[in-house]
Amino acid sequence: MAKLEFRVLGPVEIRTSGGDVVPLPSRRGAVLLAALVLRVNRTVPVDELVDLLWDEDELPGNPRAALQVYVSRLRTVLGDTGRSMLRTGAGGYSLHVEPAQVDIEVFRTLVRSAAETADPADRVEPLTAGLALWRGEPLAGLDTGTVARELTPRLDEERLQAQELYFDARLAVGESADLVPELTELAERHPTRERFWAQLIRAHQASGRTALALATYGDVAERLRDLLGADPGPELRDLHAELLSATDNATESSVVPRQLPASIPAFTGRTDDLRRLDELLPTASLGLVIGPAGVGKTSLAVHWARQVADRFPDGVLYADLLGFSPVAEPADPHAVLSRFLVALGTAPDRLPGNVEEQVALYRSLLAERAVLVVLDNARSGDQVRPLATAGSRCQTVVTSRNELAGLVATEQAEPIRLDVFDPLQSKQLLEARIGARRFASDPASVDALVERCAGLPLALSLLAAQIALRPRRALASFVSALGDGPLDALATADGVGVRTIFSWSYRQLRPELARMFRLVTQHPGTEITPGAAAALAGVPVRDARRMIAELVANHQLIEIEPDRWVLHDLLRVYGQELCEPGEAAEAFERLLHYLVHTGFAAAVLLAPSRVRIELPELPVDVEVVAPTTRDEAFAWFDSEQPNNLAVLRAAAGRADILLWLCVWTIADYLDFRGRSGYPQAQQLALEAAVRLGDLPKQAHTRRDLARGHMAMREWDEAIRQHELALGIAEELGDEAGVAHGSLGIGRVYTRIGDHRRAIEHTQRALRIYERTGHVDARANALNNLGWYHSELGEYEAGLDYAQQSLKLYAEVDSEFGRAVASDTSGYALAGLGRFDEAIALYTVAVDVLRGLGRRLDTADCLMAMARVQDRAGRGDGARASYAAALEILDALDHPDAQLVRNCLAQQR
């Protein structure tokens, strides 16, 4: 066969002198050929060839014999009938051909020739020819097993070294700009190979793009730290120093910038926040101080920056980005960047012509310097990114009223959220500003001033300034001024004030967000829920959540837990000022409709047998997401509970019908849970009913008021309210009202020991219920009679009434009825000495009541069961029941808690 060409710098091939490809027998045959070609004219040991052809788990039973088969097939392909090309030697095989027939040998010869040539211009041609022999990845198609682990990497390294020589030669002969695309591609493909980066930097420098060269150094330095945890090597460091030297020679000034504004002389508090900023230094390059207007973000950042300025010997840069200015547009970060570059020593006439190169120069100048950058009042992440430092010895601190979540997500900014001062911190600030003597002159007024400022540092500072300017004025007069108009009192004659600062943030809001902010401030309560926010604004809950999230991000609202938000007191006053009277009234009415309609749906889940009331039509712009289970009902009531009294007081005289309905919806919840506020809510409902002149509502409310007084053991007042309710019902001829009142007053009489009178009133109620067919109420009356007779020691009669009650409750499927009738039956059985049966029924009653969420009833039942357990000699059970009752009563702050403690003490 004529001379063949052997090629491994790409797919492994054999070609004839005419250019035809000679087919290879198999992949392993190609591996065998490649191994022999790479060590042409030298013997390759059998063991090495076996390792190349087979992985350990693929070895044939007789590897040597299998190798001989592949050698034989390859000889056939080569036409080597005389075995002169593929020879068998001592312990191995070798391929004997002219080096000029093998592309890798030709490549190596050309590279050696270039390396031995002194003139760079003479190196370019052989290196170009050598690199042209590469047709892609070496040994392509064989990149598995030992070939991929050992042979391919060696060939790759030879090619990379040749490329380094090639670009060195072209740079040496003055080429630069034309090399950038190729060098950029190589550097990106081999990010830890510093020579390519150095060549790329030199190409930029030689092209007159020093800023881009410096930026490239900053990029590779950051990559090496990320990938290898190491700084650039000597070649790159020397090159960087050379670039900086050239840049410094072109600058006008060597002044170290110290641009911080004056700090506050009497800075107080923020110890934890200062510590968190200190902790950023070794770990994070970007700190983000966020919080509402007036909370002291700038003061903290500047104070801290001055404390640590000596750690940044190369300078401190500062810029107000005007993110919330009422008179100026937010600062253009690129204009700020130009100022920073000049401050760092770049002559104005030598600033790069485009933004990208300015950013590159900025980062490069800071790459090896220790500089602190303070960016104040940022409105967006886009303002920050071009100005944030990337050097390992630099730090950037940003302040903003917005959360700038993008910086946290993409730049790993460390957020530090500032809250208002607590009372102690507020007093420290006030004392530092007005002096210890005046501060100590009137402690009561100081407490009131601190409360009115609600911990807002700006408000405290403005107040302190006014106090300091009026040394003869009593502190109490400032308290009065804050009470009359807090935003007016917290302002200076030159226009600096809390209202002004708040307005800067408000003006940045989109119209829908501004409207939402105004309307949520109309909520009289302390906490805002999604449903309430949606009702106030007249939007769907989903939209309300989205808008509230934006207001939280802008720090106009504070999230205290998921789906619960609060307003700073002064922000609330500011937002209420912005609302037109009609807008505010409509929002509040929507809120009441939301509470009434959602509360009604929840109330009937808690007490399904409760007599229904008629509701007004739901406004079309109020969305009600009604609960569907008892747990959801309790959860909804729990979420709105903190606001109940505030909303009701705000509704008094403005929306009395909705006020009364609202109290109707929460009555059972407050009673079941034993929540505070029950008597106050009922009193407000009674006053509303009186203003409305609605006698049935008055009677209903007086019965509910009596229920509250009874729960707190206020027997006389409970009887008085029931008698007044009965009088109204009798006057109206309202039989159901008379029955409900008689049943209720009977409960009170039995609690004060007058069981006969209790029976008399309850029999009257029972007769009415039997006429009206009110099954649930009749069962209730029978159960009460069972209890009263048992109290008189008439246990058989008591048990009979209780069992009748239990059957009726079963008819109407009342879980609560089953519980109370079981409780009464247990009491009667205990009186008959049937303790086991009694305890079993008490256990049923406790489980049902606990499941229904009726905490006070559960505690009463536990106490009754404990007494029976004690009589039955079950001391451990009695102690456990008393302890469970005490836990509930303590949580409710109930007067019976001490009684249970005494019982427990006797048990021990």
Features:
mainly alpha; 908 residues; five-stranded parallel β-sheet; 43 helices; three-stranded antiparallel β-sheet
Task: Characterise the protein shown here.
By secondary structure, the protein is mainly alpha-helical. Helices cover 63% and strands 6% of the residues. It contains 43 helices and twelve strands. The strands form four sheets. It has a five-stranded parallel β-sheet, with helices on both faces. The protein is elongated. The model has no long low-confidence stretch (mean pLDDT 86).
Distance between the termini: 111 Å
Report helical residue fraction: 55-70%
Give me the side-by-side strand order of the main sheet.
7-8-9-6-10
Q: Spans with pLDDT under 50 lasting ≥5 residues? A: none
Average pLDDT: 86
Give the radius of gyration: 44 Å
**Total number of β-strand segments?**
12
Beta fraction of the residues? Answer: 5-15%
> Per the principal axes of the C-alpha atoms, what is the gross shape?
elongated
Q: How is the biggest beta sheet arranged? A: 5 strands, parallel
- Count of discrete alpha- or pi-helical segments spanning 4 or more residues: 43
Structural class: mainly alpha
Could you give the topology of this structure?
Layout: E1 4-7, E2 13-16, H1 27-38, E3 44-45, H2 46-53, H3 63-78, E4 86-89, E5 92-95, H4 103-115, H5 120-132, H6 145-172, H7 180-189, H8 194-206, H9 210-228, H10 234-249, H11 271-283, E6 286-290, H12 297-308, E7 316-320, H13 333-343, H14 355-367, E8 372-376, H15 381-384, E9 395-400, H16 405-410, E10 414-417, H17 423-434, H18 436-440, H19 443-453, H20 457-469, H21 475-484, H22 486-489, H23 498-506, H24 511-520, H25 530-537, H26 541-553, E11 558-561, E12 564-566, H27 569-578, H28 581-606, H29 630-640, H30 644-651, H31 656-673, H32 678-692, H33 695-711, H34 715-732, H35 735-751, H36 755-772, H37 775-791, H38 795-811, H39 815-831, H40 835-852, H41 855-871, H42 875-892, H43 896-907
Parallel strand pairs: 6-9, 6-10, 7-8, 8-9
Antiparallel strand pairs: 1-2, 3-5, 4-5, 11-12
